[in-house]
Amino acid sequence: MNLRYCLILSILFFISFGSSASSAWVVRFNSTGPVKIGMSLSQLNAALHEKFSMPEDKDEQACFYAEPAKHPGVAIMIEKGYVTRVDVFRPDISSAEGIRIGDSEARAKQVYGNKLKIEPHAYTGPEGHYLTARSSDGLYGIRFETDGKKILSFYAGKKAAISYIEGCQ
Q1: What does the alpha-carbon distance between residue 139 and residue 158 come to, in Å, rounded to a whole number?
Q2: Which of 12, 33, 65, 145 has its CA 20 to 30 A from that of 73?
Q3: 3-state class of 159 per DSSP?
Q4: CA distances for 72 relative to 93, 125, 162, angstroms
Q5: pLDDT tens-digit readout, 110-148
Q6: What pTM did the predictor assign?
């Protein structure tokens, strides 16, 4: 092989690696990128090459968030040592159906159709909504928070965990 050919292959590898790394963080009902709902804390550490640990405070051990250093704008809810939900606060990560922060509420309704349950938002006033879709088995879901016009944030995971309107509070 000549040097030029090797250089071109190397550039293509790094370009494709960069794009696949970001596309891997697609939010599904039961996973986001390499993070699977139900993983133990040690499995999460292995998947993300991180060193998250249980909080020392016993009260905080019941529910806390891990925030991956390499993925700012993503928070992983840990309940009793297991991943139960992944919260997204950045517009470059989408749901498997392509919905992301900044998209219109109308687009989410169009994409998810009658699978979407629409409820009033607890904090954004009468115009804001929670848009919730459940997995076919009903065990998992994804919830978008809106101001009535745009998606502000979203999260996916276990049915009970996505119903918490204040996270671990």
Answers
A1: 6
A2: 12
A3: helix
A4: 11, 28, 20
A5: 999 999 999 999 988 789 999 999 999 999 999 999 999
A6: 0.84
